[in-house]
Design a protein that fits this description.
The chain is an alpha/beta fold. The protein folds into two domains: about 140 residues, NAD(P)-binding Rossmann-like Domain (Rossmann fold, 3-Layer(aba) Sandwich); about 110 residues, Dihydrodipicolinate Reductase, domain 2, CATH 3.30.360. Helix content is about 35%, strand content about 25%. It has nine helices and 13 strands. The strands form two sheets. An eight-stranded mixed β-sheet has the order 3-4-2-1-5-6-7-13, sandwiched between helices. A five-stranded mixed β-sheet has the order 9-10-8-11-12. Helix 3 packs parallel to helix 4 and helix 5 packs parallel to helix 6. It is elongated and about 60 Å long. The protein starts with a strand and ends in an 11-residue tail after the last helix. The structure holds nicotinamide-adenine-dinucleotide (NAD). Nicotinamide-adenine-dinucleotide binds next to helix 1 and helix 3. Nicotinamide-adenine-dinucleotide (NAD) binds next to helix 1 and helix 3.
Amino acid sequence: MTTPVTLLGPSGRMGQALLAAAGQRDDVRVAAALDRGDAPGQGRELVPGVVVTALIDAALAAAPVYIDFTTSAATRAVAEVARGRRVAAVIGTTGLDATAQAAVDALAEVAPVVAAPNFSVGVNLVLGLVAEAARVLGTSWDAEIVELHHKHKRDAPSGTALGIARAIAAARGQELTAVGRFSRDGDVGARPAGEIGAVAVRGGDVVGEHTAYFFGSGERVEISHRATDRGIFAHGALRAATWVVGKRPGRYDMLDVLGLRGGRGDRS
Ligand code: NAD
């Protein structure tokens, strides 16, 4: 079966990767494309029969699911319209502000939404591995995350680094809001036990690299993931789009799509 999808931001880095990945698959078809009014390619035929538009309602009318790798403002605007239409969503945009988060939550009340800071299989495996390491090692081992991304990335730390930090905090029974430390400058004093640090490095064309460090006394553990091709996120998102159509309203993530959610199973 082929799932028609509405693609957001086809002119962007992820939009291009999604377009290329969709062209390699027969389980999805780009049925509509939405981009900002002044985006390159606006008004042109993207694939046969699909002209890039800036009209949200028209774009969402073309498919039962949309894929969003854009900006916080676009995520909010599209989710608000999608709620009225009860369109399913796959959301990869990171660094969402509170109003965008609220719009995604409101959409998830009436439609199924897969939202994940990282759609790669490898990173979702890493989330499980860091949780296991944190459970075993506890707060006496210092947890720090270092992430590298290309120079155009807007948000920091990355959504994936925050996801790793949340997984470590949850496994140790902590709240990330209480123990997360995302900048150090000047005389910051000794490192408190139980803190979870994250450092963002930006430069060049790095697709995305994350390492979780656990520093013990006389030894350390490192768990790393390196993405070298945006195609991994694109194929993960397209797989999520085929999976999410027909599911019950609610928020899902990549662990649900991959069937890795222990005990919760498939809520279809
Ligand atoms: P980009 O700047 O290359 O592309 C953004 C796209 O959004 C552009 O095409 C832009 O025209 C479009 N856009 C902006 N405003 C819009 C609007 N109002 N309506 C429709 N389209 C609009 O960015 P990118 O590198 O492709 O990343 C996009 C987002 O995806 C970022 O938040 C990034 O962190 C995230 N990302 C997530 C994953 C993941 O696996 N979840 C992987 C890579 C990137």
